[in-house]
Every structure is written in structure tokens, then in C-alpha cells.
Amino acid sequence: DPDLNQDIHGELRSLLRTYRIIVRNDLVIDRKSFVNGSDGSIPLVESYNKEHAITKKFKGQVFFPLVSSIEEIPSALSKEKGEVSLLMSSSALPEAWGETSIKEVAQQKLIYQKGIDQPGPLSFSAAYESEQNKLVVFGNSTFVLNAYLKFGTNYSLFLNSLSWLVDEDRLISFNLPIVQNEPVFISEQQMGIVFYFSVLFSPLILFGVSIYMYRRKRDK
């Protein structure tokens, strides 16, 4: 999890680097796809890696309540020969970036600073596989808290990851009856579409139809 006050996970980050995975200590801000009211700090994921078994057939929106970004170390820069796959990502800059300033977070004045913050698109999760090891890494540990039990897609993603880790790929993407999807998240872009069609276009269409019917009736 991101902690801009201090980095208490330095040893864990070092361990993951040996498997060619970098977990930054930043806070991903996504102003294009996020949970309403979060100002971009709770990204909604809609872009998945369609080549990896975990997310190949995955559908729906996953949200991460405060998440760090993840990066792959190129194989040429590491002795580790395993394969790294980035599973999902944020929007691109200027809508998304990795925030590193605790002052901006505290003041709720989040802006991208070139050379300091990491530009988007940024990954939220990565999978590593070699002949000896398998890892799935997330930049957030709370997306499957009991408090989010009703958010079924979050749990489906987690269960897919567990199935892949234990080589039970046939169980991936099965819809378990205990996992229910009740809430519906709408991103800012989707809200704009809803606004224009419900507040502007629909009334204009009805108004136009009314004028047409009135004139047609009058001409008769």
C-alpha cells in the first residue's frame, strides 16, 4: 500500500525487485476513471491484459482504494529469467499519474509535476512466472476487504489470481454464487455521457417532436 509519510516496506520492495517487479511508493491518481467523490484517488480499472490467463476473459470494473503503481524491470537488466506480465493499467497522462507529494495529498491539490511524479498509464498489478516460482503482486492490499464483499468483480479478480497461482486455470472466471455484483460504478466520462443524453439531448428531442406534432395538427 502507498505510504507517502515513510516507506516501511523497503525489504519487501527489494525482494520483489529480484523478480523484476518494482512497486513504487506513490499514489496513483486517475482523473478519467475513478469512483465518484474520490478526486481520482480510487481508480476504476477498465483496461486489462488480454494475453494473460488471469485477466484474459475478465470483465467488469475493479476499484483500488489508494493504490501504488507497478513497473516491470526489463529482462536485459536482470539475471532473473522469469516472465513478467502487467495485468491492468490506469488512464494515460494528463489524466493519470503517480503522486509522490504528501503535502499535495493533505491539501487536496493534486497536480502532476514533471520529473517528480510518474506519468501514466500506470500498472496496478503484475504476475511473474518461472520454472520455480509464481507471483501475483498488487499495489493495494485492501481491495478485497470484507467491507467490499458486495463488490463482486474485486473478489473475482482475486480468485482468478489464486486459481492461476495453484495451476487451476480451469477455475478462472467461474462465477461463484456467493459473489454478487450490486453496486454500479460510473466514471466521470460516463457521467458526462449520461448528463448530455438525459439533460440536453432527450429534452431537445421531446421538444422537437412536440413542435412537429403541434404543427402537423394545426395544418390539418
Strand proportion: 15-25%
- Quick check: average pLDDT? 86
Q: What share of residues is helical?
A: 25-40%
Please describe the biggest sheet, giving its number of strands, its sense, and whether it closes into a barrel. Answer: 4 strands, antiparallel
The end-to-end distance, rounded to whole angstroms, is 71 Å
- Please state how the strands of the largest beta sheet are arranged side by side: 4-7-10-11
By DSSP (H or I, 4+ residues per run), the number of helices equals 4
The H/E string reads: HEEEEEEEEHEEEHH
Which geometry do the CA atoms define? elongated
Q: Count the strands? A: 11
Structural Rg: 22 Å
Which regions have little confidence, pLDDT < 50, spanning 5+ residues? none
User: Based on helices, strands and strand pairing, what is the structural class?
Assistant: alpha+beta
